[in-house]
């Protein structure tokens, strides 16, 4: 099932995607807390205004150094680099990524993102799938210069619009070998696959829940399958994950 979130006259509403027609069936309530029950309202694909398919109730947890890549092969026995993005960093498809005045090198990482379904803490690896609601595409945006100069990454990775997600959340997806790409102005600049994850998604959920209490809607960024790609104001970035879709955002400054 693919779940989207639409901007409607009555405010943002969740919807299920009809994969035959591409139309959106508006839901009566938030699917994290209630059964998936359509209201009967249908929005056509060409009229839908998609917003972020999920807003984290508290946080986005990012993991670095989690892919076996030609330029880097992390040790799976070590704890990966871990950082937080505030929920105010999250935006949806087509929303501009706004480069802060102090930024100097806006970089992007296309990633598989995991949406948590319920409150949990210290989840065993073998039960991690019980707390996963679904998967979406994430763009881990950062200012590369600040990331190198600051002792902490809060400013470099946490500014407003630094975490686009979308276009939908997919609740039933085999994530063992999904292609991930990132394109700038229509040209693919990076390509990888989830088959190269160093630590599996269940392992990341277990690790994150050992550090923090996870809340419904919290998002885990699973790491970059290829090196960061620079793209500044005036450019358009498209992050794609096979089986989920394309997350398209312009960059402004």
Automatic annotation (TrEMBL):
It comes from the Bacteria. It holds the Pfam family FAA_hydrolase. InterPro entries: FAH, Fumarylacetoacetase-like_C, Fumarylacetoacetase_C_sf, Rv2993c-like_N. GO terms for molecular function: hydrolase activity; metal ion binding; ureidoglycolate lyase activity. Its EC number is 3.7.-.-, 4.3.2.3. It comes from Trueperella bernardiae. Residues 76-251 form the Fumarylacetoacetase-like C-terminal domain. One of its GO terms (biological process) is small molecule metabolic process. Belongs to the FAH family. This is Fumarylacetoacetate hydrolase family protein. The keyword Acyltransferase does not apply. Signal peptide: none annotated. PANTHER family: FUMARYLACETOACETATE HYDROLASE DOMAIN-CONTAINING PROTEIN 2A, FUMARYLACETOACETATE HYDROLASE DOMAIN-CONTAINING PROTEIN 2A-RELATED. Residues 1-53 form the Rv2993c-like N-terminal domain. Keywords: Hydrolase, Lyase, Metal-binding.
């Amino acid at each position: 099932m693919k779940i989207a979130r639409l901007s409607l006259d009555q405010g943002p509403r969740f919807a299920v995607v009809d994969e035959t027609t591409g139309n959106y069936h508006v839901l009566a309530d938030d699917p994290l807390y209630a059964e998936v029950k359509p209201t009967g309202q249908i929005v056509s694909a060409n009229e839908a205004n998609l917003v972020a398919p999920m807003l984290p109730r508290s946080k986005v947890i990012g993991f670095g150094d989690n892919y076996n890549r030609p330029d880097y092969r992390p040790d799976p026995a070590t704890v990966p680099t871990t950082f937080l993005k505030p929920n105010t960093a999250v935006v949806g498809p087509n929303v501009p990524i706004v480069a802060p005045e102090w930024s100097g090198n806006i970089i992007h990482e296309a990633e598989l993102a995991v949406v948590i379904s319920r409150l949990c803490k210290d989840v065993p690896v073998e039960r991690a799938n019980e707390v996963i609601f679904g998967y979406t595409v994430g763009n881990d945006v950062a200012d590369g210069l600040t990331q190198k100069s600051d002792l902490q990454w809060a400013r470099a990775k946490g500014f407003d619009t630094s975490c686009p997600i979308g276009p939908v959340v997919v609740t039933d997806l085999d994530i063992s070998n999904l292609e991930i790409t990132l394109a700038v102005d229509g040209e693919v600049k990076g390509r990888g696959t989830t088959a190269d994850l160093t630590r599996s998604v269940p392992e990341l959920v277990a690790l994150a829940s050992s550090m923090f209490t996870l809340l419904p809607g919290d998002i885990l960024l699973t790491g970059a399958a290829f090196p960061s790609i620079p793209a500044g104001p005036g450019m358009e970035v498209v992050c794609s994950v096979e089986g989920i879709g394309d997350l398209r955002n312009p960059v402004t400054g």
